[in-house]
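Example complex used in Figure S2.
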Amino acid sequence: MSYRNSICGMGVALTLWLVGGPIALAQSPSPGAMSGPEVWDANHDGVYTCAEWKSYLDRIFTLADRNRDGNLDKSEFVTAKKATASVLPEAEFGYFDENQDGKISRAEFVGKQSEFIMRYDTNGDCRVTAAEIKAGDAPKGPQGPAQKPRDVFH
Ligand SMILES: [Ca+2]
Ligand SMILES: [Ca+2]
Ligand SMILES: [Ca+2]
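Predicted assembly (154 residues):
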């Protein structure tokens, strides 16, 4: 609570300090907008690495493995699923339980590759940079542009 208050205080102070700058107000960050890869960019440098991804999963595994037996059972997985909802919304138990023994080991959990990295890491160095994200978001894709039937009458 006091952390939040101090952040607010800082925000007010900053805003006051920046009065006169027309863009100051437009830049107010929306709180709670951390959904997506930002949550695991540990050093917040905008570069998403495999190591950061793994340590993120490792932390979640530790959090979820309540009885500390090194495996997530189905009830423990609920915690992990909640924690990863913003980055792995589709991930069900079977997605992680590769050997289908009904429990998810730490290796199974942490060994999952980030779909985000797989999608954007075009040069395969296990680092997704801002430039790669930009290139990956360019308006082109497997579906291609909508067809233009009108061209038939050209
Ligand atoms: Ca980073
Ligand atoms: Ca467990
Ligand atoms: Ca397993």
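Helices lie at 2-17, 50-64, 74-83, 93-96, 106-110, 115-120, 130-136. The domain at 37-136 is CATH 1.10.238 (Recoverin; domain 1).
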